[in-house]
Amino acid sequence: MIQAIDHQEAVNRAFTRQSTRYDEEDRANPVLQDMRHQVYEHLDQFLKPGSHVLELNAGTGIDALHLTSLGHRVHAIDISDGMIREIEKKIATHQRSGMLTCQQLSYDQLNQVEGEFDYVFSNFGGLNCIRNLAEVTRHLPTLLKKGAYVTWVIMPPVCVWELLWIFKGHPRQAFRRFGSEGVLAHLEGEFFRTYYHSLSDIRTAFGPSFEFIKTEGLAALSPQPHRGDFPRLHPRLYATLRKTDALLRNNFPFNRWADHIIVTFQYNPPI
Ligand SMILES: C[S@@+](CC[C@H](N)C(=O)[O-])C[C@H]1O[C@@H](n2cnc3c(N)ncnc32)[C@H](O)[C@@H]1O
């Protein structure tokens, strides 16, 4: 328990330090922009007009703002003081009160959320900060309308780009995501464990009340977000890799082996 609190405090401090420059770095990174665009295309397949969305680990509220601009209502939660401050600024600057609300909360405490939702969304690996995803999913049935969708964007254990480290003579780096004890992340001077979740682990965490709908790879063959300079340095190769991703990302193994996977479930409890 104390370990879990220490972990969450380290995560809070790290992301709070990052929060004030988060949006600027996001905007300046074309790889991240393309990845976000692909996530939005995925969501568009399932979001019904005027949905009430619960966003987990919402960060500074970039996606929450996007969703409200499409007419959806969003309740955004995040564990970090700094991230919540950035969302509050967006609510004020973009006059989103009523459409966008936020709450500082860890996603394993969803019993403290009020409301009934059509959609639960989590983007860009926030859920890789927890070892056991069932601690999140166990609260969902009380929050969801029947037929609601859940889309999570999570980092899986196998990433083609990282496997290439084998050829550079760094096998530990190539297989770093496989460790059962997770990987020690170092962010903004803080150390905390991150955990990589396979599609089968994710399906197990959801259980039989959730129907698995779809998975697709995000940056399966195209570069990872920390290679934000790649499109400028290799524009033709980047365009080719993105096109190849688009052709393969719905098929095995590229819908499971990628930097992130986008996974969607539908809440269909037995009658
Ligand atoms: C990589 S950022 C992604 C933020 C946002 N989803 C985006 O797409 O920009 C990860 C976020 O997860 C949040 N986070 C990590 N652990 C969390 C937890 N236990 N509960 C809620 N948020 C958490 C962090 O504070 C951070 O804002």
UniProtKB/TrEMBL annotation:
InterPro entries, per database record: Methyltransf_25, SAM-dependent_MTases_sf
Pfam families: Methyltransf_25
Keywords: Methyltransferase, Transferase
Domain Methyltransferase: 53-147
One BP term from GO: methylation
Entry-linked Gene3D superfamilies: Vaccinia Virus protein VP39
GO molecular function, one term: methyltransferase activity
Protein name, as recorded: Methyltransferase domain-containing protein
